[in-house]
Amino acid sequence: MLDQLLNFTFLNKAASFSIPDILAALGFSFVIGLFIFMVYKKTYIGVMYSSSFGITLIAMDLITTLVILAVSSNLITSLGMVGALSIVRFRTVVKEPLDLVYLFWSITSGIIVGAGLIPLAVIGSIAIGCVLFVFVNRKTADTPYVVVINCDDENAETQSASMLKNHTKKHLVKSKNVSKNGIELTVEVRLKDSSVKFINDLLTINGVSNAVLVSYNGDYYM
């Protein structure tokens, strides 16, 4: 009687996976996810590091592997999985564009491992990790900066622009705010060298009340 109750019909329609196969797939997925996490941690260039995002990369790899194993087992399962995943929306704001690379990398490796192409997942992950190590941590001497200058009059503005021209490779006025209190200039500059002493020299100009240098990490054109 108990055997008849436990003999569910839908269990017979699913493909059978051996426990060693499942553990092997999850094991390879975990190792690759851990590698992705380590690459993300070593190449992170922001200020506010999120450990939860790194753990998400590992979990995403494991979950995707399970999904692919389930989808590959049965046609009905795959259609149901597509319908279920179509209602899922990722609404978390990604602050760093590079984070999308790691998310896609984690999902892709999970798909490949779930499909049984483990050598492709391992070799591909190593290649991607090496590329990210080389290019993300690469330092550039042509770092853009933004200079904010408060001038009392047009004469001080002209002298400030002349000094910026002499001490930088390139300068571009991003904004100019004129009020009764004076003129505020926001200028994007490329330094000739690593010295920022010219900011101190700006204050020696008669009519310049304030000068601020800010590192600029946004997108820009050459």
Commentary on this structure:
By secondary structure, the protein is α+β, with helices and mostly antiparallel strands. Helices cover 55% and strands 17% of the residues. The protein contains nine helices and four strands, in the order αααααααβαββαβ. A four-stranded antiparallel sheet has the order 2-3-1-4. A hairpin with a 2-residue loop joins strand 2 (168-179) and strand 3. Helix 3 packs parallel to helix 7 (118-136) and helix 4 runs parallel beside helix 6. The radius of gyration is 28 Å and the shape is rod-shaped. The termini are far apart. 17% of the residues are buried.
Q: What secondary-structure arrangement, pairings included, does this model have?
A:
Layout: H1 2-6, H2 9-13, H3 19-43, H4 51-71, H5 75-85, H6 97-114, H7 118-136, E1 144-151, H8 154-167, E2 168-179, E3 182-191, H9 198-202, E4 208-215
Antiparallel strand pairs: 1-3, 1-4, 2-3
Distance between the termini: 78 Å
Beta percentage is: 15-25%
pLDDT averaged over residues: 76
Structural class: alpha+beta
β-strand number:
4
Strand order across the largest sheet: 2-3-1-4
User: Tally the helices: what do you get?
Assistant: 9
Overall form: rod-shaped
What are the low-pLDDT stretches, counting only 5+ consecutive residues below 50?
Answer: none
Largest sheet: 4 strands, antiparallel
Radius of gyration: 28 Å
Helix share bin:
55-70%
- Return the string of H and E elements: HHHHHHHEHEEHE
